[in-house]
User: Fold Protein kinase domain-containing protein from Ancylostoma ceylanicum.
Amino acid sequence: MDRFILFCSLFLESKMSIVLSASAIAKQSFGKDGKWVARRARGTAEFRGTLRYCSPNVHEKKEQGRRDDLWSLYYVFIELHCGLPWQTLRDKQKVELLKMHMSDKDLVLNFPVELHGIVPYLRTLDYYQRPDYSMFYEGLLAVMKRVGAKASDPYDWENPETVRNIALRTKLVKLTVAIPLLNTFHLNQNGER
Assistant:
């Protein structure tokens, strides 16, 4: 079973909880009455997070909020399903170039169609807006239904053929999308485009 489908099933139906935590960059977001309150966004916010998973907003030094958490989750889903085009890169400028200039169509090239609308939606959100979390949830349920996945299905690493297929998809995305896109940009030594 595909890692992504398995993750979806665990995320949605399992008794086991999966927690992705970045407590080093967590912010207080509750007022005295217990209701959610966004603190005022800073004019600029320095880079914080993990290069591979941070949202395009982080690269633009915008305040991180709930929308950015969903960007990160979406990138995790893509990596689990077919690999991120930049997952082997360590150069911050190259990763940023890919995130900022790769088309949504190329980003979701081998990703389930039920989840294609999420990236354009995330691009519409500002720091203060509450994301439509049900869009993620319903998309994940639709993928699981289409492929007939259940939370009780075996992990992908229990099937060597599935592991090989994921590796091939990851290599294909890198060769057909990421490398050609990076080659279209010529960075000088200062990193200017």
